[in-house]
Design a protein that fits this description.
Elements: E1 3-6, H1 19-23, E2 29-35, E3 41-45, H2 56-60, E4 66-69
The chain binds iron/sulfur cluster (2 copies).
One iron/sulfur cluster binds next to α2.
């Protein structure tokens, strides 16, 4: 099982950012309805057991507000064709 942690106080909020919701292939992130100290509405986790440990969320979060632990099982990055 993966372990995904959201560092809420570092988050820029799903309205101003929301990248984690966009990049997660398993729709693990949803709106929490809660604000952090800076006034941003943060995401929360649902169905964390469905996480495939792709680490997209941690890689793409611009504010380093997500820690995704667990061994990466497969990449969801698009394949680049070489000529
Ligand atoms: S590691 Fe991948 S599947 Fe798991 S929460 Fe992050 S983006 Fe979603
Ligand atoms: S990608 Fe990071 S900063 Fe953006 S909403 Fe998700 S946790 Fe917050």
């Amino acid at each position: 099982m993966a372990s995904v942690t959201i560092l809420k106080e570092a988050c820029k909020g799903i309205e101003d950012c929301g990248i984690c919701i966009f990049v997660c292939p398993k729709d693990i992130f949803i709106e929490s309805g809660r604000m952090n100290a800076a006034g941003y509405i943060t995401p929360k986790l649902q169905n964390e057991d469905d996480c495939i440990k792709c680490q997209n969320c941690m890689i793409y979060c611009p504010d380093f507000a997500i820690i995704a632990e667990g061994k990466k099982e497969k990449s969801t990055e698009p394949e680049v064709e070489h000529e």
